[in-house]
Every structure is written in C-alpha cells, then in structure tokens.
Design brief:
The protein is α/β, with parallel strands linked by helices. The protein has a five-stranded parallel β-sheet, sandwiched between helices. The termini are close together.
Length: 190
C-alpha cells in the first residue's frame, strides 16, 4: 500500500445489498469522502426535470455510455478519487468491469463486494424507497430488475473483489465488518 495516496474502497453488489448503508457508515464513522456513480445520473435527471426512477436511471446510464464511451463514468470517478485530499475514499455503485478499468490502476484501490440474500434485499428496497417506484415494487418486478443491463454486469465484477461483506444481519454486524476492513487496510497503509 502506498502511504501517500488515499485508501479507496470500491463498493459493488446487487441492488439493496447495503452499499449505501456501508458508504454512509464509512463517511460518518471513518470520515471517508464518498463518490457515487449514480450521483452523476441523478444530477442529469434533476437538471432535465425527469423523475429519479430506476427506469430513467438505466436509460440515462445507457445514453451517456453510448454517447461518450462505456468508461466515461469510470474516468470521472477515478479522477475524483485520485484528486481528493481525504485519506479514505469510497466509490459506491460499481456495476460493470469498465467501472474499475481506471480505478484498479490507482494505488490503494480495494474492490469490496457487498451481498445479502435476495429476500432480505427485496424487503430493504421496498422499505427504503430510494427511487420513486421502489415502495410499490412487487417481488416479481424486483426479480425482473436483476435482468436489466445495469444489474446483469454486477456478478462478474463481484467475482474480482478482493474483499467480501455478507450483509444478512443487523446494521451492527455490517458496521463491525466495515471497522475490520478499515483497520486491516489502514494498518497496511502505515
């Protein structure tokens, strides 16, 4: 580990596996700077006055990548991560191999897969209502969402993860796993 560059944890995993909760914990308890792939897409949708529903997020992601290259969002994330002055950086929402093309070349980049059982993820998704259509989503719709272009690419990315968090338990369980991870890499960093 390079001690002058920030430690960068890239979070990947299926929808509602706990990436957002993990990023928030990293931010609040470990003073990490967080970047989300979806923030760029949400900013564009807001600017265009379009609702932030999963369908629009998928369409915007596909349009931006089609127009400017599969790796355009990855370039922006890698630039943001490399130029921050924070010692700990979180990149949330890594979904495709192109997303890590530039990140994995940065010193101290660690890909972390976060996963949870599908039923648990469905219950979390409906409960949190992050997107406008989440609270009314049926189990069948949730299952079908896993076949979308933005979801099918996640499994191969998870296979490349150096670290893995299984998030089937409580928030305390998740936080304990994160604390262990941070301790491991900050110890290596010094």
């Amino acid at each position: 580990m390079n001690s002058t560059s920030p430690i960068i944890f890239g979070l990947t995993g299926p929808m509602a596996s706990g990436k957002g909760a993990a990023a928030l914990y990293f931010q609040n308890h470990h003073h990490a700077k967080t970047f989300r792939f979806s923030s760029i897409l949400r900013d564009l949708l807001k600017r265009l006055g379009l609702p932030e529903i999963r369908e629009n997020m998928v369409a915007m992601s596909e349009a931006v990548r089609h127009a400017f290259g599969e790796d355009i969002l990855a370039k922006a994330m890698a630039h943001d991560a490399a130029t921050t002055d924070q010692p700990l950086v979180i990149i949330e929402g890594i979904r495709r191999k192109e997303d890590i093309t530039y990140l994995k070349n940065l010193p101290n980049f660690v890909l972390v897969a976060i996963d949870a059982d599908m039923r648990i993820r469905y219950e979390r998704l409906v409960k949190r209502g992050e997107n406008a259509d989440d609270q009314t989503k049926t189990w069948d719709q949730f299952v079908a969402d896993h076949d979308r272009s933005t979801e099918i690419t996640i499994t191969p990315v998870m296979a490349e993860a150096r670290e893995r968090i299984i998030n089937n338990g409580t928030n305390d369980d998740l936080e304990q796993q994160i604390d262990t991870l941070v301790h491991k890499y900050t110890a290596l960093h010094h």
